[in-house]
Amino acid sequence: MSATLAPSWQVCATCGHEIPETDPHPRCPRPGCGGLLEVHHRPPPQGGHALRATFDARRGVWRGVLASGVWRFREAVLPSAGDDVLTYPEGNTPLLASPPVAQWAGSPGLLLKHEGHNPTGSFKDRGMTVGVTQARRIGARAVSCASTGNTAASLAAYAALAGLPALVLIPKDQVAAGKLGQALAYGARTLLVRGNFDDCLTLAAEASERLGVYLLNSINPFRLEGQKTIVLELLQQLSWDPPDWIVVPAGNLGNTAAFGKALEEARAWGLIDRVPRLAAVQAEGAAPFALSFRSGFTRRDRVTPHTVATAINIGNPVSHDRAVRAIRETNGVVTVVSDDDILDAKAVVDGAGIGCEPASAAAVAGVRRLMNEGVIRKGDRVVAVLTGHLLKDPGTGGANRPVEIDANLAEVERVMRG
Ligand code: F0G
To answer: For residue 255, which atom of ligand 1 is closest to its CA?
Structure first.
């Protein structure tokens, strides 16, 4: 139906039911279904070469919607949003080479896509610019989410930009200080839930339905359209010559799903002629997706999560099915790293002057593990995604301590002499 007219529409990933792009349901509205929705776009009329040229020409734009590293790719994100877009702007994050990190990981071709350089310090801004834009398009009166912290910070900021009230539910005592501080400062109504993230998500979904609030967790398919641009932007930074691997930390599996969709579309639309393999990395204590992978995805596992990387402390990832497809279609892998590995990797990334939060370091630890196992090979070109900024969680990890002194030179000399 809508497929024949509109540039974009929503499709239920479970039953195939189609609904218009501006339908506000968070899940498939067909009675008894409730499956996750996906946004489908009609392929742009330009061929791959011309579309690449369009995206590349926009890299020089400094102002307005196209200055965003999300909306530069608007044909792949939400073509019909027109100029009715709420953008900070976001994206345009660096792709970094770091010899010490590459050496530690044992991967000479490693590059780091640092999503901590987004306006609120995590990749979530790429999804939120699209999610809150969509909230305005459908006339939402308020927006909400459950979060391990970064989604809450991002939602709070973009809701403030839009002038919309925001409600965030976060697990008490399981969210890094920087993130909670952001949600409060940007003015979100912030609920500390006595439970874990998975409890928060169930509650947020129920509350949003009851209160008529637009839910902006990554079950929201428009969020994922924005997060696809992490992949599109890194491909563009590599002059559309794809790496062999893209490695990403995995919690609720929104990114894993978004990356798979981005790569599928990039190939179908002729932007790339070869699809990189995806590697999703989970913390050992919160690894339901890795468990499922080991069973050949014959089971959907759920666990009670516990990891130092609070951002990915998730036991029942909502985008499981979409992420299975992403791993299958990219010939990808799922692996786990221990909390010690995560903290070691973080110390190396921090010590290299780059810095990231613990969940992000899981990607680098994952590269090291996959190199050691020979899954990623020495000559492979690898991009690991650093999902959040060091300042999000300054309290975790690091042996370096400040030394307190009296205010005189002799004291400085004493300390410097060791
Ligand atoms: N890295 C960081 C820094 C995150 O904040 C998250 C998720 C992930 C990785 C995992 O991404 O869920 O797409 O697999 N944070 C969510 C939040 C859950 O509420 O901020 P995912």
So the answer is: 13
Sign, Cα dihedral of 127, 252, 29, 140: negative
Produce one character per residue of 265-282: b if its CB has 16 or more CB atoms within 10 Å, e if not: bbbebbbbeebbbbbbbb
CA distances from 173 to 145, 149, 170, 310, 358 (A): 17, 11, 9, 10, 16
How many helices (DSSP H) and strands (DSSP E) are in the chain?
A: 15, 13
- Helix, strand, or coil (residue 179): helix
Report the b/e string of 11-41 with b at 16+ CB within 10 A: bbbeeeeebebeeeebbbeeeeeebbbbbbb
Model pLDDT for residues 334-348, shown as the tens digit of each residue: 999 999 999 999 999
Element (H, E) at 96: strand 95-97
d(CA 165, CA 157) in angstroms, rounded, equals 11
Residue segments in the chain with a per-residue pLDDT below the cut of 70: 1-4
How high does pLDDT run on average in the chain? 96
| Best probe residue, ligand 1, of 112, 114, 124 (max atoms within 8 Å of C-beta) | 124
Q: Is 359 in the pocket of ligand 1 (CB under 6 A)?
A: yes
